[in-house]
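Reviewer comment 2.1 asked that we show a complete input and output for one of the modelled complexes. We chose the tetrahydrodeoxyuridine case, as it is the one discussed in the main text.
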Amino acid sequence: MLDGKEIQELIITALEQRKNAYAPYSDFRVGAALLTDSGKVYTGCNIENSAYTPTNCAERTAFFKAVSEGARGFRAICITGGPGKKEPEEFCPPCGVCRQVMLEFCSPDFEIILAINGERYQVYTLDELAPMGFRL
Ligand code: THU
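Response of the prediction step:
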């Protein structure tokens, strides 16, 4: 389980990363901060495309950066997202494709922090957000 300080650090990083979102089509900006077993944090933002389907979610950007650099064990991810550049008003749960990517690399107790700001956040396990997930 992450402690309060670890959670706050991930929230600050995800909020900061959200500023890098490339979302000219939806204007829905998402930031993510992914914590590895070794304590390293990989960031991600959503990256849209005029052909739409190449769009990559913030969570997958963070995972693919991490995995491509050799990281394999993960403790938690913080996700924050919403329309425009203002502070989000609602939680931004991960899409089904991102949940499947989490299932590939994370154990059922992997923590998913949905954050609006440092005071308003919710913590779930992967097992709660992706029950009965497909694994080989
Ligand atoms: N998006 C994310 O980055 N993560 C999510 O969990 C949900 C959706 C992005 C994809 C797209 O750029 C925009 O939000 C609207 O769907």
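The chain is about 30% helix and 25% strand. We note this here for comparison with the apo prediction described in Section 3.2.
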